[in-house]
Amino acid sequence: MEEKLTIQSSHPAPPCTLVIFGASGDLARRKLLPSLYNLVHCGQGLMPPQSAVLGFARSQLSQDNFRSGAREAVEKYSRLKVDETCWNSFANGLYYQSGLEQPEGFQHLRQRLEQIERERKIPPNRIYYLSIPPEAFNDCIARLAAHKLIAAPDAKQFTRVVVEKPIGHDLASAMEINRTLHAHMAESQIFRIDHYLGKETVQNLLVLRFANSIFERLWGNRNVDHVQITVAEAEGVGTRAGYYDHSGALRDMVQNHLLQLLATLTMEAPVTLNAADVREAKQNVMRALRPIGGAAARDLTVRARYAAGRSGKVEVPGYLAEKGVAPDSRTETYVALRMAIDNWRWSGVPFFLRTGKSLKRRASSIVVQFKQVPRILFNRAGNIDANLLTLRIQPDEGFSFDVVSKHPGLDVSLKPVRMNLSYSTEFGADSSPDAYERLLLDVMEGDHTLFPSAEYVQTSWQFVQGVLDAWSDDTRVPIEEYPAGSWGPVGAERLIGSIEREWYEP
């Protein structure tokens, strides 16, 4: 009989009220409300039915309109089909409060929370999800504290705050946000969310490495030739141009998503699976990153923006022609980096990271290329394909391992063979929860394992700040262009060509 090994089973979270700041926005509609519905779905039941969700925003909406809008969002974006019984239970706990920008708005929020808690007979366990612009974080936290909406960390009932990325615009602003947060609450009450860490493949990285001796023993500079991490987006900036033109790919993707992937891939085995130990293992990777700054940025970084091109049959305008982009913008939509980790395990192994918009297709992957076998026996000509471990993060989550095999026949003919695992094929199309489901449940349970610490955020920004400072001189690292619908600029090919390697198509 097949035995299922379970380290930690999911169980219902304690009853609470989750307040979504910016509940009329795109994130709430596309991700938060569908994920919360999936958690209360009859097939899962991970969020107690007496829990409540309170939307808090500027828009003047009636409660009925908020609920009907939530229904549309769930029907469109939920991975689970809407069940009427489950929906009625979920909708009964949906509330809405306008006045986010009003002087008395937070006083009304407190009154509404107390009313909901009385009606539903639940304790004042509260989660505040700040789905608002980063520049509004500090004011929002201060107003929560001023209206006594933040309980002490040792109180009987909990208060937790979820902060969306980006955590700051640069090192100084990130440190200011952390100071504001810590002025009003403890680190144990703060959850800095990065949805990439909730993806099944990213979580499976730890299992792949530390539950399979074959990989862990190969993991390091003795066997690894180089590593490629790619996060490619097919869409351009679209309606986000106003935000994106003040951010760019380095701030928007590298500082959080890609560095998190790098840390998870390369960290040492934590002492336990407790949040503190996992966070410390990742932080040690950040401490070991070799800084990129000054003249080194010319050889180790590439920045570019997309020009006009085609995505399939669709004509795509160049970035400077997008609505909301400044005509003299110097914002990059593509970044490629060559990085190094100066520790015992990874010394000498180059890591290549790339991310961009308006690329050939949407795909995210990690490729670990192992070193070639010696140029003897079957490899005298040096033309045997290297072994590759490919971790697919999206859209088809899973991983594959490329090995070399003999092709059937009388002669000795070698052929690369791919051993492949697709999560949807192996476990079912609906087996993987959305990343926000996992992360929202962890917030309700108070589990920080998949959430960056304040120290991690600061250390990652220190690395990124060095690149930003080097890029402030346009003559040092000029901004290139690449046609929309391609895999990026020529400079990225030169970057990986510096070690006589090529990018693998994700």
Brief summary of the model shown:
This protein has 506 residues and is an alpha/beta fold. It has 16 helices and 17 strands. The N terminus is likely disordered.
What's the SSE blueprint?
Blueprint: E1 17-21, H1 26-40, E2 52-57, H2 63-77, H3 84-91, E3 94-98, H4 105-120, E4 126-130, H5 137-146, E5 159-164, H6 171-184, E6 190-193, H7 200-210, H8 213-216, E7 224-232, H9 241-244, H10 249-266, H11 275-288, H12 296-300, E8 301-307, E9 309-311, E10 314-316, E11 334-339, E12 351-356, E13 363-370, E14 388-394, E15 398-407, E16 413-422, H13 423-427, H14 435-445, H15 454-471, E17 480-483, H16 490-497
Parallel strand pairs: 1-2, 1-4, 2-3, 4-5, 5-6, 7-12, 8-17
Antiparallel strand pairs: 7-13, 8-11, 9-10, 11-12, 13-14, 14-15, 15-16
Helix pairs in contact: 1-2, 1-14, 5-6, 6-15, 10-11, 10-15, 11-15
Describe this structure in words.
The chain has 506 residues and is an alpha/beta fold. It has two domains: 17-193, NAD(P)-binding Rossmann-like Domain (Rossmann fold), CATH 3.40.50.720; 197-432 and 452-497, Dihydrodipicolinate Reductase, domain 2 (2-Layer Sandwich), CATH 3.30.360. The protein has helices at residues 26-40, 63-77, 84-91, 105-120, 137-146, 171-184, 200-210, 213-216, 241-244, 249-266, 275-288, 296-300, 423-427, 435-445, 454-471, 490-497, and strands at 17-21, 52-57, 94-98, 126-130, 159-164, 190-193, 224-232, 301-307, 309-311, 314-316, 334-339, 351-356, 363-370, 388-394, 398-407, 413-422, 480-483. The strands form three sheets. A nine-stranded mixed sheet has the order 16-15-14-13-7-12-11-8-17, sandwiched between helices. Helix 1 links the parallel strand 1 and strand 2. Helix 1 crosses helix 14. The protein is globular, with a radius of gyration of 24 Å. Residues 1-9 have low confidence and may be disordered.
